[in-house]
Design a protein that fits this description.
Helix content: 40-55%
Distance between the termini: 47 Å
Strand order of the largest sheet: 2-1-5-4-3
Shape: elongated
Radius of gyration: 24 Å
Largest sheet: 5 strands, antiparallel
CATH class of the largest domain: Alpha Beta
Low-confidence stretches: none
Domain HTH cro/C1-type: 11-83
Mean pLDDT: 88
InterPro entries: Cro/C1-type_HTH (IPR001387), Lambda_DNA-bd_dom_sf (IPR010982), MLTR_LBD (IPR041413)
Number of strands: 5
GO molecular function: DNA binding
CATH architecture of the largest domain: 2-Layer Sandwich
CATH topology of the largest domain: Beta-Lactamase
Order of helices and strands: HHHHHHEEHHHHHHEEE
Number of domains: 2
Number of helices: 12
Protein name: Transcriptional regulator
């Protein structure tokens, strides 16, 4: 049994025992040992068998579908935070959170504006919907001075794999390509059925031999920071320390910041 399976089973059982039949819209008939829902009652409300509920509460490696998780969430009267945790434990993306925000939150835009070093926002598709002036100066030729209304935002993977200038601009381009594809796969694993995600991946596979060769490898790594070296057309060799921040209230977006690399660390 995996830890997540045990945690998922314990979570469902705990909330089943906390949910009364009246809360679930059922009539409580007969004597009950506990005030919570019986397994067969939760099974009926969720469209599964009583045996299925028993097995999942025991921590068996069952893979509940998204519709089943949705019905479990409603039957157990879960809050939004509890529902999100349920989907997280099951390793599924909650469809209620699937629609990415149409615009970058004002707080993130303000943060970009006050940062003096290159910084940009990455959305779920690794589009860059917003960036600051320092990022536009650093990524000249890729990021314009400001976003162009009604136009598709720049995409980090399209830049890396489809822009010929990226090969000279990004130091050790081949290694960075391999790393970013593995990070991208880890980042978007729950969204691979998204039509827009599928379109981006298909486009990159058809237009970049490098991406087409790396994507089938199934490599997965967590996004990491660290030293980033660029060969800037005006400033020559430029070294930054990259950090990626995940805003708690905007989980589909990341704030990427390039900070000056400490010279002492270069020795």
């Amino acid at each position: 049994m995996s830890g997540d399976s045990l945690a998922l089973g314990a979570f469902i059982r705990r909330h089943r025992e906390k949910t009364t039949p009246q809360q679930a819209g059922l009539n409580a008939l007969g004597r009950r040992r506990t005030p919570g829902l019986r397994r067969e009652e939760l099974a009926m409300l969720s469209g599964v068998s009583g045996t299925w509920i028993t097995w999942i509460e025991q921590g068996r490696p069952i893979q509940p579908s998204v519709p089943t998780l949705d019905r479990l969430s409603k039957a157990l009267q879960l809050s939004q935070a509890e529902r999100q945790h349920l989907f997280h434990l099951a390793g599924k993306a909650d469809p209620q959170l699937e629609s990415p925000p149409s615009a970058v939150a004002p707080t993130l835009l303000h943060l970009l504006k006050i940062l003096q070093y290159p910084a940009y926002i990455l959305d779920r598709y690794w589009n860059v919907p917003a960036w600051n002036a320092a990022a536009a100066a650093h990524f000249a030729g890729w990021l314009p001075a400001s976003p162009v209304p009604e136009e598709k935002p720049p995409n980090l993977l399209e830049f890396l794999f489809l822009d010929p200038g990226a090969r000279n601009f990004v130091d050790d381009w081949h290694s960075r390509c391999r790393r970013l594809v593995a990070e991208f796969r880890a980042d978007v694993g729950k969204h691979l059925d998204d039509p827009e995600m599928a379109r981006i991946i298909t486009q990159l596979q058809s237009q970049s031999r490098t991406f087409a060769g790396l994507w089938p490898a199934q490599d997965v790594v967590e996004r990491e920071g660290g030293r980033r070296i660029f060969q800037h057309p005006m400033h020559g060799r430029v070294v930054y320390e990259q950090s990626t921040l995940l805003p708690a209230a905007h989980t589909d977006m990341k704030l990427v910041i390039l900070l000056p690399y400490q010279e002492d660390d270069l020795v």
